[in-house]
Amino acid sequence: MTIAVNVQPSRRRKAIPFLAPETLERSLGHKFELRLGANENPFGPSPRAIEAGIEEFSRLAWYADPESHRLRRHLARTIGVQENHLIFGNGIDDLLDVATRHLLDANGVAIATAGTYPMFAYYVSLHGGRLVTVPYSSAIAVDLARLEQQAVRFNASVVYVANPDNPSGAYIEPDRIEAFAASLPASCILLLDEAYVDFSSGSGAEHIPSVTPSRLSKVVRLRTFSKAHGLAGLRIGYAIAHEQHIEYLERSHKYSGVNRIAQAAASAALEDHGHLAAVVSQTIAERPYFAEVGKSLGWTALPSNASFVTFDVGDRTTALEWVDAFARCGVFIRRCRVPPLESCVRITVGTQAERRRLEQIVAGIGKSVGVHDVENACFDLLDSHR
Question: What is the pLDDT of residues 138-181, one digit of tens each?
């Protein structure tokens, strides 16, 4: 039995690759108890970031610094790059928009993995580009060799790679990324989305090697404060690139830049190394336990180097049923839409308390979504926890 979540999308939402949890809540008629679908940071931001943001409220009547000077200087020192190699935006999605507009000429070709983070494809289409995709490898990993082949074949302007990949969770080592960038055609830029790189090992710092102009000439790296730093609601991210790319990106970016609360909170977050380390270590520690929750249902967990675990549940129909069943039980998760991952669902790694509550909900649903009383079981679970 499929329990359909009846959502009537607006004209604007029809173009967006996914629906917000708030949209689904309005359709369902209840709030999600567990938000495990958008890969939000369950541990929250650094207390220093919260304090800095609150302090900045007294200056809300002032426009923000469009150059993000204080944050730019602080970040450059933190990650070891020059200030003119940085640009800030309202999250990675904003910078993807600006980067595709800058890198793609009219009818220019972009290359990406079919089923990877969908906002890149959205912006390629929006700006009149042509997207050529390659499938994941048989190991459900990004196939760099095939991406390179297609980039050469179509004389592509840009290749997009998310590392770790979303939604597969697969990770590519830095030396392979550098070799891949060097192998691309001379006029082709690697757009490297590193939203989840902090979770691939103990810290994200080592994943930014010495950034010299020669290394940067072929790569635009995108990073965010939304995930490990827990500032998703403030929408702030940055790109690391050669100064020539930064200059062009700034020309096509909004002059107003990032809001002043986001700038202040991000700068404070950079100072709190202990909070970042705790978030990363707790996420990595909980990741195998969240994988076990899915395995208890007979699902297959894909290897993950991100703040989520993706599970193969068998087929597309079953994936749809599970997403709907969890939604009825007050749990927001997402499903993957493109083969070979269309049989998969993705669950954010939460706190230990969230995992234990998820285990209770899973036990209440049982191992089969197709049972006739699943909807009643979900409502009983919701009632028992109100």
Answer: 999 999 999 999 999 999 999 999 999 999 999 999 889 989 99
CA-CA distance, 194 to 36, in Å (whole number)? 20
pTM, 2 dp: 0.90
β-pair partners for 33 = none
Cis peptide before 209 (omega within 30 of 0): no
CA angle 189, 167, 241 (to 5 degrees): 25
Whether 239 and 95 have beta carbons less than 8 Å apart is answered as yes
Q: For 122, list phi and psi in degrees, rounded to 5.
A: -60, -45
Give the torsion through C-alpha atoms of 98, 101, 103, 104, to 10 deg: 160
CA dist 167 and 183 (Å) reads: 25
Q: Which residues contact 338 (CB under 8 A, 6 or more apart)?
A: 114, 115
Angle at 261 between CA 258 and CA 266, to 5 degrees: 80
Kindly give the residue spans of alpha helices, DSSP state H, lying in the chain.
21-28, 47-56, 69-79, 91-103, 119-126, 144-153, 174-183, 213-216, 243-252, 260-271, 273-295, 316-328, 352-365, 374-385
Distance CA 147, CA 151 (A): 6
Q: Give the separation between CA 81 and CA 46, rounded to whole angstroms.
A: 24
pLDDT, tens digit (0-9, with 9 covering 90-100), for 27-67: 999 999 999 999 999 999 999 999 999 999 999 999 999 99
Q: What DSSP character marks residue 112?
A: E
